[in-house]
Amino acid sequence: MSYTDAQLSAAIAAMDEYRGGDKGEVGAALAVVGLSAEGAAKEAELRDDMIRVAHRSGASLRQLAEISGLDRKTVTAIVGAAARPPE
User: What is the pLDDT of residues 25-35, one digit of tens each?
Assistant: First the structure.
């Protein structure tokens, strides 16, 4: 894989943001936690989008709750929420 200078700069900026002023092992751990949280948030957004698509296509709330591991109340809230605008 190769990365552009802009991608590399963005990654370094994100790590620095999460690291704060902490150096060494603590700073590295904070950067990993922050970047992991970003990734988890993106995955949840994608999951929620796919839940809405599946529901519009005919999947029941019960089916969606079972397959996603979420409870029906949460799935109902996701289905009822507006989809995020495209990036």
Answer: 999 999 999 99
Burial code of 47-62, b = ≥16 C-beta within 10 A, e = fewer? ebeebbebbeeeeebe
Which residue is associated with the tokens 């591991």?
69
The angle that helices 24-56 and 5-19 make with each other, rounded to 10 degrees, is 110
Give every CB contact of residue 48 below 8 A, 6+ residues apart in sequence.
Answer: 78, 81
CA distances from 83 to 4, 12, 22, 43 (A): 31, 30, 37, 14
Q: Which pTM value belongs to this model?
A: 0.74
